[in-house]
Write a structure and sequence with these properties.
Blueprint (H helix, E strand, L loop, with lengths): L2 H12 L6 H4 L15 E4 L1 E3 L4 E3 L10 E4 L8 H8 L2 H8 L3 E2 L4 E3 L2 H5 L11 H17 L2 H18 L1
Antiparallel strand pairs: 1-3, 1-4, 2-6, 5-6
């Protein structure tokens, strides 16, 4: 190992960096995290609306975003992402966020993990097809009318349950 790198590592150990939560979980402690690119990113901080990014390029992200992985193989990732863009999803997710001055919202990783979410199994095949179509149209020109229509579908599903 290059002497300058060894010196840098020793400085980190003197400062106790190797004992910090994330670093202590790595072997060696100074290694970068090894994880696959997430299909969806959510911004750590936001004002007004939560920011989501659909990672279609499959690139790794920086720490300004939390990674979201869809572990249920029966959930269509585009339907899930379309849901995240709706007002109803934002209202639900904000229940698990931290609020700071001047409308600053912050999400810790477990805030997202512990958030409530709709049961996508209750969506009909037609509703899924409609959501996928509306989302594909939204991607073409980012017309908010498409997201409003997706929101309407999710609201109708929630209202039918209650």
């Amino acid at each position: 190992m290059i002497p300058e790198v060894q010196d840098y590592i020793r400085i980190g150990e003197k400062a106790g960096i190797h004992s910090k939560h994330l670093c202590s979980k790595r072997n060696p402690w100074y290694a970068l995290e090894k994880r696959s690119p997430a299909p969806i990113w959510v911004s750590v901080f936001s004002r007004k609306k939560i920011k989501f990014v659909r990672n279609e390029a499959n690139v790794s992200n920086l720490t300004t975003f939390h990674c979201m992985y869809v572990t249920n193989m029966f959930i269509d990732i585009d339907v899930f992402f379309a849901y995240l863009l709706t007002d109803i999803a934002h209202q639900v997710l904000l229940d698990n966020s931290r609020q700071y001055g001047n409308g600053l919202t912050k999400f810790e990783p477990n805030d997202i993990n512990n958030a409530k979410i709709v049961d996508f199994d209750i969506l009909s095949d037609k509703q899924i097809s409609d959501i996928k179509y509306l989302y594909s149209e939204y991607k073409k020109n980012e017309d908010p009318a498409f997201i409003k229509e997706i929101n309407r579908i999710f609201v109708s599903v929630f209202c039918d349950i209650n």
